[in-house]
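Open question from group meeting: does this chain pack into something compact, or does most of it stay loose? Before anyone orders reagents, we agreed to write out a predicted structure and look at it together. Recording both the input and the output here so the notebook holds the full record.
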Amino acid sequence: ARFYRERIATLHAAPDDLPAMLTQEYRHFKVGLLLWQAGQEAAAGEAYAAALRTNGQRFSCLERSGATMEGLWSGVAMRRTIVSAQLEQARRSGGLNSHAGALLHAVLSAKGGGAHYQETLMHRLNASQDAQLIACRQQLRQLEDQIAALPQTLTDVTVFMKLSAMHGLLISQASVALRLAGLASVDLAQLQSSLGKHALIGFFVYTPPSANALAAAPPRYLRYCVHASGIALRDLGPQAALEQAVHRYRGALTRRSDAASAATLAQLLLQDLPAAVLAAPEWIIDPDAALHLLPFDALPDAHGQPLALSRSCRHVSSPWQLLPRHEQAATVAPGPARSSHRHHGARIADA
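Structure tokens returned:
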């Protein structure tokens, strides 16, 4: 711990030295893992926090340099890895809820951060009145139309790869011109205020490090609840077991014999909810992974009745949707719907 604080924590990469930033971020993270495994939790926490700060700096540097969207997403993927280590340390020490606000802030910046960045970028690009950005926008639409028009039986992917590369290059150029200044963060106080009497129930799959090896442990689910008066985190256990219950329930629904599997799944997902969440007239669900496939409304409540009979449930793809936009609204000419970024869909979901 002393070696980390005296020899590693004092090193700082130049703001435009991307290789040094990447090295520094990785060094903080890996030494943080070793410190945690050695029982030095305070120093490990400092190392993880430093890794996250460096990750944010690296993301901004990538943005300024005109990196591809895939390069930017790699920064978000590493952020998710660092946050997973923070969550595991808090889970094992029983500190999930004593640091709930800080941990949730980190979780929401990692969950879908790349997708939110691109959504914000496209929103500002569509609203821009700059001549060069208008030309960029028109070129992007033409490329998207060309990609959407490719035959479904396409066997030679050369044309698709060429169009995709051109699309990515234009997105990178727009990113440099618009300067979004890195990953956005959710204002938790504003989010709580916007909920009113309702509650947000979200889920996050994280891959914890092993407590005694360099390999990662099996992924787990975290549940977070946000309401006007508080934030609560709960670990729901291994991803594999919970998702097996999800798929059993979906299979039972098609056979119309879902009573036992529904009760089991509801217990796994909704046990020990805060009183304020149970009293909320509406649940806003922010799922992750296989939970996107789950009809929450059909799950039974404590009395065995479908949730839809006692409250409304609606899904969001990100808590950002609950906050007002501060940017000028985009002005897009009316026309037929486009298959915008269809070819990026799987990568966006991963980020």
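Observations to bring back to the group:
Residues 124 and 269 are 37 Å apart (CA to CA).
Confidence is low (pLDDT under 50) at residues 326-351.
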